[in-house]
Amino acid sequence: MITLAIQKKGRLAEKSLELLEHCGIRLKNGSRDKLKAASVNFPLDLLFLRDDDIPRCVEDGIADIGIVGDNVVLETRASVERVLPLGFGKCRLSVAVPKQIPYADIRSLEGKRIATSYSNILRDYLDKAGVQADIHPISGSVEIAPGINMADAIFDIVSTGSTLISNGLKEVETILESEAAIYRHRDLSPEKLAVMNKLCFRIQSVNTAKDYKYILLNVPNEKLDEICRILPGMKSPTIMPLGDAGWSSVHSVIKEDTFWEIIEQLKAAGAQGLLVTDIEKMIL
Ligand code: ATP
Ligand code: ZN
């Protein structure tokens, strides 16, 4: 049995629960409003916490593993081990300055006041660069600090950059790329590690499947060779004769990022009746 800490409410909360659901892990009915929930079909207890509390809870062993952003783990300086990145909650932590201010490189921050809710990450970075600056820790609405003359620059989470622009700021330095990941307690028993690995195996199958599509198409037999050359499947494609003499049905798996290009080539080569479906789980 392992305890997994996830965010109770916020950007990672729904995604974390959805991921567990896709892994076939069902929770006891109505347990969502409480602090804890148990699974009915997997040896897992859930703890719902504020994301800032998750790294410490995993470090202390109150939770065995947690789903939390890299940014939060680094800021809390918790001693935990990163096990598996999850591909959601992506963001970056960047320095931004008012757009009319000239900025050359990190040394431009020398002697400046920088407002942030990520003091530790910023301090580590500036120390490494040998830059002395005055860090102002604030807990929210960091982007308004230059406008009210509280700071010369800010260091904050950016996802699209539109908040910066609407506050007259420009992003000048990216210090950290972050995403949600599974982190674990440093000293787990072999039993707990085995459960964690089982969970990670399921997560990887779900996440790998998201990068691929399953494709079925009808092909005149004389075009089979050409079509098979276009299809970069995991192995060679499955080919089955159709009821119509002279035609075959071809099944394969293709990567989402090459998808449209390949579809066009297949059509040009004479494929018909293309069907494309999502893949729910995939084990490589
Ligand atoms: P809590 O109440 O749990 O403390 P919070 O307000 O601190 O929540 P959220 O805004 O829900 O946190 O963000 C949680 C995490 O989502 C962040 O720490 C970060 O890892 C990730 N994230 C991804 N994109 C963004 C974004 N645009 N703004 C803020 N966080 C983001
Ligand atoms: Zn938080």
Summary, kept brief:
The protein is of the alpha/beta class. It has eight helices and 15 strands. Adenosine-5'-triphosphate binds next to helix 3.
The radius of gyration over CA amounts to 25 Å
The unreliable regions are none
Number of strands: 15
Ligands (ions, cofactors included): adenosine-5'-triphosphate, zinc ion
- The helicity comes to 25-40%
* Helical segment count: 8
Element order: H for helix, E for strand: EHEEHEHEEEHEEHEEHEHEEHE
CATH class wording of the largest domain: Alpha Beta
Please give a structural write-up:
A hairpin with a 5-residue loop joins strand 13 and strand 14. The protein has three domains: 2-88 and 180-208, Periplasmic binding protein-like II (D-Maltodextrin-Binding Protein, domain 2, 3-Layer(aba) Sandwich); 91-178, Periplasmic binding protein-like II (D-Maltodextrin-Binding Protein, domain 2), CATH 3.40.190; 212-278, Alpha-Beta Plaits, CATH 3.30.70.120. The protein has helices spanning 13-22, 54-60, 70-76, 119-129, 162-166, 190-210, 224-230, 259-268, and strands at 2-7, 36-38, 44-49, 65-69, 81-85, 91-98, 113-116, 134-137, 153-158, 169-178, 180-184, 212-220, 238-241, 247-255, 272-278. It is α/β, with parallel strands linked by helices and 284 residues long. The radius of gyration is 25 Å and the shape is flat. Strands 2-3-1-4-11-5 form a six-stranded mixed beta sheet, with helices on both faces. A five-stranded mixed beta sheet has the order 8-7-9-6-10. The protein has a four-stranded antiparallel beta sheet with strand order 13-14-12-15. It contains eight helices and 15 strands. The site of adenosine-5'-triphosphate has 16 residues, from helix 3.
